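Before relying on records like the one below, remember that each one covers exactly one chain. Contacts with other chains, cofactors or solvent are not represented anywhere in the record.
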Amino acid sequence: MLTQIVLWWSLFTAFTGLAGGLASLLIIRFMFGVGEAGSSPCSTGVISRWFEKNEVGKAQGYVWAASRMGGALTPFVVIPVMAWLGWRAAFWLLGGLGIIWAVVWYVMYRDKTPLQLPRGGEQQEASPRGGTEGVSWNKILRNRQFWTICAMYFFYAFGSWFFFSWFPTFMELGRGFAKSELTYAVAVPFIMSMIGNITGGYLTDKISAKYGLKVGRKALGTSSLAISALCMFLAAFIPGKMAVFVFLSLCFGIFDLMLPSAWALCIDLGKQHAGAISGAMNTFGNIGGFFCGILFGYLVQASGNYNLPLYMIAGMLLISSLLFSFINPTKPIVE
């Protein structure tokens, strides 16, 4: 499934370079998103099959850190390609890299970890967490925890999507960064996020092993979201270029301490349906990101103030923190 997903989104990444106008661009990017959205749920399903319960947070941390590494490297790769060969060539290059990855993944990946194989080398039946039973959506949709985790991720996405969409514009037009400074200004928060994801993955597993899942998942998720909300508030409140750069970099790094916990929760709560639960959570996150992008633009247009949307985002992160505190990782969504 993941091979098909990456091939799909890689092809539509390459097709972006062939867009002839706004209509074709919107259609191509929409189709790209349809494919790309399945990658995280599928990778969560892989983690649920390959890693023991006390390692899923760490595994998620490395997966998400790698995605942030892509964001950090993008300006250094794409901008020179655009300057040398044009913007269309940048999409062809990235699409080609995705196709190469899909081929390598298809050749190398196996459904079972070698640790699950007996000495004779024959594969055992999949563990309960890796089962293929039909998804009980009727039970899932009636579960309060399911809606809590989706709502938590919806409000968290207001913070993360700011960095994916409006951050360069805010730094340039809102705080006066020159275009030549933007490459590093954009890269540093993503590097902080990489550190946050790896650290958060280790912390959630270590704390969970020592104090239980409630503390290991909830305490880390709730506190990191609350502290990141404070950093976002200070970035809006305190004037100056370096101050906002520091607080926004800290914000991205700190709220992504929570990310491995959130995706590990999908395995804790979803069990054999971890892919379905994480897919639903990610859908709500993408909806939150959509609204963040729209509301940010309207608030700036109405007020002429680039700081005002940051107060909105700080409030959303605080709501996400509160919702995280109501999630109980010891009670599966589907028994």
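The CA atoms of residues 201 and 295 lie 31 Å apart.
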